[in-house]
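Q: what sequence does this backbone want?
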């Protein structure tokens, strides 16, 4: 991929099944490949509320809780569903402890006050509560979505900055602007 496409960075962007297919909604080039998943089950993906990261047909990014996304039914160019939500309308997910015992390298996305998509990945193991506070308190995101933990990876177009030991399912690729070293 790095040799064929110029990009600023790529990171895994959601949970996937054994065959690497997305667990939840996946839209690519305006085509829905996997439908929205509103089921209840065990695991981080199903820790409600979960949510959707999307880029609208007009290029505007967004993060919405799954039921809000379903009700809005936005016209999107791309979308990936994951979970749990980290920050919902400025509030940390209600099930997170401030610094719980489950710690992994984690990655996710939020939308800041200027409407920009902000992607983050930890370089060390962190709790969901601490990762959520990064988005809300440091990055100014009123809504943020957890993409993955443990196998989280980020590639800058020439090398892995974090992770890369495991294959991944859904991936977000950002071409053009961006500084993955921050």
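A:
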């Amino acid at each position: 991929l790095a040799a064929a496409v110029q990009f600023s960075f790529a990171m895994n962007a959601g949970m996937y099944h054994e065959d690497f297919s997305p667990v939840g909604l996946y839209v690519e080039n305006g085509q829905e490949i996997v439908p929205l998943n509103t089921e209840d089950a065990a695991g981080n993906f199903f820790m409600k509320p979960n949510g959707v990261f999307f880029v609208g047909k007009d290029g505007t990014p967004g993060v919405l809780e799954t039921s809000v996304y379903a009700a809005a039914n936005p016209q999107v160019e791309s979308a990936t569903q994951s979970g749990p939500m980290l920050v919902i309308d400025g509030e940390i997910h209600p099930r997170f402890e401030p610094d719980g015992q489950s710690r992994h390298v984690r990655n996710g996305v939020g939308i800041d006050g200027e409407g920009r998509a902000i992607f983050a990945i930890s370089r060390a193991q962190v709790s969901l509560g601490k990762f959520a506070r990064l988005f809300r308190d440091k990055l100014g995101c009123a809504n943020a979505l957890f993409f993955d933990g443990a196998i989280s990876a980020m590639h800058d177009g020439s090398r892995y900055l974090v992770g890369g030991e495991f294959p991944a399912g859904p991936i977000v690729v950002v071409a053009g602007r961006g500084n993955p070293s921050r």
